[in-house]
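SAMPLE LOG
Freezer: B-3
Tube label: C17
Construct: single chain, 268 aa
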Amino acid sequence: MVTEKTKIIAEVSSNHGGDLKIAKEFIRVAANIGIDYIKFQSWQAKKMKEDDHQYEWFLKSELKDEMHYELINECKKYNINFLTTCFDIERIEFLSSLGLDEIKVGSADTASYKMLSLLKKRFKHLIVSTGMATDEEIIKAAEVLNGVKFTFLHCVSIYPTPPEKVNLKRMDWLKQFTESVGYSDHTIGIEAVKLAIARGANYVEKHFTLGEDKCPRTMPWDANPKDFEEIVKYRDICSKFLGDGKLIIDKDFFQVREKSIGRFGSNK
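STRUCTURE (predicted):
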């Protein structure tokens, strides 16, 4: 037997630039690679301050309500899970009407306990990044989420994250709150994601680009389709190597045992 495979989340963020055709292309490419989830973000620009230096970009690339329906249908067509991030309480009613079982919570909202409590009532599984939360806030969030399935993702909210700050052992600390933990990555390259998989992460998340010539925005910490192909392949190999931790007793076990025990005389 092998252990349950790490679930891979490809984070589109706003790299589609508000272009529905490009957003659908992200879905098609991710599904063909074998990625488990394609993730978008359901913020609304009207919630931002207009003097924010990214306001114009977020206004242009906002995922409109009607786009959610089209993208969910596209995900069903290609048999890949649709996932999105909830950014404010007022968005919960709409997002919960989409028929989703799972929702993502960003690092800035680990300590948004009221929002967590409301999401808990509407979704079966919450995936929560912890990159901007203190130990005390994570402990409190776990208390709020008690009674519902939730995943804590270790995350470092530095873009890009330098290797010396990745600190993947943090996943071990998160395991005291939930059996399901993982890693949301902002490093350049895919080495940290691969190491998280090798350490038994239940989920890994990595930002996704189709390439600078194929989508409106590409960031240094984004992984391209070739990178994700390597991540998926590595995940599958690790799943075989890690196993499930149980003793494997089969014909090979008994054959080796019979040949080895007593080879140099009885020690019993």
